Amino acid sequence: MRRTAGLMVRRSQVTARRMAASDLLWKSAEARADEMESIVSADDRIARARSLYERAVYFGDLGAVEAAERELDGVEADLLFTRGRLIHTRFLEARDENQAKAKGDPAELPLFERAAFLYQMLGDVRGEGEALLWVGLFHQVVNRDHALAAPYLTRCLELATKVGDKSTMSEALRHMGIADHAAGRLDAAREELEESVRLRREIGLMPGVASNLIGLTYIAAAQGRRDDAEALIDEASSIAAAAGANRIVHHIEEARGNLGL
To answer: For 217, how many CA atoms within 13 A lie in the half-sphere containing its CB?
Structure first.
């Protein structure tokens, strides 16, 4: 029994890493509308910066220079953040094709770190929280360093909670759960993933709910709660099928095979 339980935990840890990648690919697709909104916002801020420049040059309003710089800092932060996510997604796609050959781009981390710094300087708590999340995800997903990712995920959760950003809260909790799952801290992982599920239900991110339910299935199986595992994977399957989340459906079938469900 101990040998079987150990095998199940190891399999669940491998799947946790794969699910992290899958969920991020889904998130990047879901974020396209937000990114388009940021592009429009960037145009507006550049226009305001030009207007402020004219006020400084023609009317001697020296305070306008600092205001214009803040507008451009916001544009830069959004650009860095979005470019970093695109680089990260490219890594995930490469890893899907050949996990052994996939390598992270060293340019990714500085983009998120600079974005986090700029958001902090601007007093944009939501933006800072999101950027710190992705710093943590770089360490966890690309470098597989859960320990280094932990403080960024924790700080991200604090900031996201402060401004009520449930999407970012759910993502931070998910990846904290992945770290605890990988370390064998199953009770903590269960608590974090269940809270992430609750938040994702609230915001209607149902593919994300299905993704978390797979992790909870592995945890239930490792804890000997087979009935719970079967119920969780069945619910995940129904949700993923209804959402047309084919990538998640694949992971569900993989989990069924690994766990004999």
So the answer is: 29
Contacts of 249 (CB under 8 A, 6+ apart): 237, 240, 241
CA gap 116, 62 in Å, rounded: 27
pLDDT digits (tens, 9 = 90+) for 93-111: 888 888 888 888 899 999 9
Neighbours of 99 (CB within 10 A): 11
The alpha carbon of residue 112 and the mean position of all alpha carbons in its chain are separated, in whole angstroms, by 13
Judge whether 91 and 104 are in contact, CB under 8 Å. yes
Mind listing the domains of the chain with CATH numbers?
Answer: 31-164 (1.25.40)
Could you give the CA distance from residue 49 to residue 222 in angstroms, rounded to a whole number? 56
Which tens digits make up the pLDDT trace of 204-223? 999 999 999 999 999 999 99
If you average pLDDT over every residue of the chain, what do you get? 86
